[in-house]
Amino acid sequence: METVTVTAAGVTASDVVAVARHGARVVLGDDAIAAMRASRSIVDDIEKDARPVYGVSTGFGALAQTFIPPERRAELQHALIRSHAAGLGAPMPAEVVRAMILLRVRSLALGHSGVRPVVAQALVDLLNAGIVPWVPEHGSLGASGDLAPLAHCALTLLGEGWVVDRRGNGRHPAGPALAAAGLTPIALSSKEGLALINGTDGMLGMLLLAIADAGHLFRMADVTAALAIEAMLGSDRPFMPELHTIRPHPGQAASAANIHRLLQHSGVMASHKNDACHAVQDAYAMRCAPQVAGAARDTLGFVTDVAGRELRSIVDNPVVLPDGRVESTGNFHGAPLGFAADYLAIAAAEVGAISERRTDRLLDVTRNRGLPPFLTPDPGVNSGLMIAQYTAAGIVAENRRLAAPASVDSLPTSGMQEDHVSMGWAATVKLRRVLDNLVSLLAVELLAGARGLALRAPLVPSKSGEIAIRMLGSKPGPDEFLAPVVEAARDLLAGPALRAEIEAAVGTLN
Description:
Elements: E1 3-6, H1 13-22, E2 25-28, H2 30-49, H3 73-84, E3 88-91, H4 94-109, H5 117-129, E4 132-133, E5 136-138, H6 147-157, E6 162-164, E7 172-173, H7 174-180, H8 192-197, H9 201-231, H10 242-245, H11 250-262, H12 267-270, H13 284-287, H14 289-311, E8 319-320, E9 326-327, H15 335-363, H16 386-402, H17 424-454, H18 463-472, H19 482-494, H20 497-506
Parallel strand pairs: 1-2
Antiparallel strand pairs: 3-5, 4-6, 6-7, 8-9
Helix pairs in contact: 1-4, 3-6, 4-5, 4-9, 9-11, 9-14, 9-15, 9-17, 11-14, 14-15, 15-16, 15-17, 16-17, 17-18, 17-19, 18-20
């Protein structure tokens, strides 16, 4: 099993995916433990001096002016966790919760939060034991970070609250789950409750997972576009590299290169290459595929940079500085992540929208250049993929609604102390929904493109077309229960196998 070491320098994006999705084991590095001990000693000195410091000797939010006597400060931290674990709704997926916990370990390990190493180790123990706290969807406003979701995670450390089972179902008391794993609830000391919940870990975790998904899906969008263009007897000339060097957007050039390469060595493409009566220009959904998918790639590059900076950031509040100062910051505000998530959602929604336009064209007998209506050999009695396109159209409409930015929708909270919030959690939640919808849209295009190519027989399709037809295993014929067929196409497109086979045949996709 892979092992991820959390050091005083943090973790990488690939570490987050490995722990969240693949169950990688987590260990704390010696340098991280040393950094936490050093910052904790500063908090201990503050306790001795009885200085008023936010979150150590005062209340929280609008109660920041309330002094807390020393004998009640541990109680303060426990009360904070219980009161802030106030979320509602369906539980978040296990991969999101695991990403969030790892990123909170990362934050503590940087040595600016003033917690004992035992607190970070307790979170590591949850991950390694496979215990997933029940974290509801609603509760975070993205400032001060993801308070409610992180509080639900922290509550598990106290042996309170709920956890979900290994399949992500139900909810069960946390105490017995800890006991069954041989773990003991911890008791928090001053500053530690606040350090467990103040930060952008939930939205950052979702953004990192979304980045990984988008990178794969944008490549697969080139695959499905190429299949559709080939099936509709489109031209490969708009994708020649010299036409993209004159508009030097890097994502556009990468996407065009993919599509051009995927269309080579095709008997279908060769069948009309020298046909003077063939269309001089293809429709925008075909010809402009790399301009849209490429712009989405460039958007993904920007978002990846933002997430990378956040991975190197200290987002706690207050922060413990090496010179002994404990200072309040606004670094927990999720605006950078909220803006990035909204931007990527817009881009992904448009990749799906242009995909659906190609699907619609493939099914329309007046525009698909000689293919039968709805890609059924027996139209009338059979409806072929007609309703699959309805489904795609409905999903495009939903993605348009989801592409409306969440980050402009601030509402004041905490007695106007927290009077501007990022809505970064909401932005990343809906981004993941947009990307899941994109899987469905590309799957419908994959199915339509493969069936269109199969109907071009005896013409031999491209290598990618042959692979898609074979791996889908579903060819034009009498109507069948279509939902399982589309679901199988979804699984094939989302997984690594189809892309791996295509790349083995044509080379690595950009």
